[in-house]
Amino acid sequence: MLTSTGAFSGLGVDSLAAAKEFYGGKLGLTVDENPAGLTLRLPGGGTLFVYESPSFTPAGYTALNFEVADITAAAAELQAAGVELERYEGLPHDESGIVRGKAVGQGPDIGWFRDPSGNIISILQS
User: What's the whole-model pTM score?
Assistant: First the structure.
């Protein structure tokens, strides 16, 4: 068994400056700088290490999920900050870009957006 003193996730980006502005400025997270990258302070006490990668390729999957109490309000806050929700072909998005899974008994209400490097992030309401 692995003996560990803690754990955290990491996410590559192509620009630390753009990541700092996006995660701190647009999403309102606390961002700590360190010599190797950025540490994002996530709601609930977790952290995410963000590092600049010379061979960066955006995550082709949802790399970070934010649970929200009111997804409609969260989508409006993102839009006000200049962040647009993604629309995926074949999914039933409402006018704001949210897939209302709860209404049809098929999962949470969810919306996706991208950081400046193209990594996929979601907001979801269970």
Answer: 0.91
Whether the CB-CB separation of 117 and 58 falls below 8 Å is answered with yes
Q: Which are the contacts of 122, defined by CB distance < 8 A and separation ≥ 6?
A: 62, 64, 65, 66, 110, 111, 112, 113
Q: Rounded CA gap, 80 and 82, in Å?
A: 5
pLDDT tens across 33-82, in order?
A: 999 999 999 999 999 999 999 899 998 899 999 999 999 999 999 999 99
Return the domain boundaries, the chain: 9-125
CA distance readout (Å), 24 to 51, 71, 93? 15, 20, 27
Q: CA 19 to CA 107: how far, in whole Å?
A: 30
> What CATH class is the domain 9-125?
alpha beta
Smallest CA-to-CA distance from 30 within 20, 45, 41, 43 is with 41
Cα–Cα distances in angstroms (integers) from residue 1 to residues 4, 6, 21, 82, 120, in the given order: 9, 14, 39, 45, 32
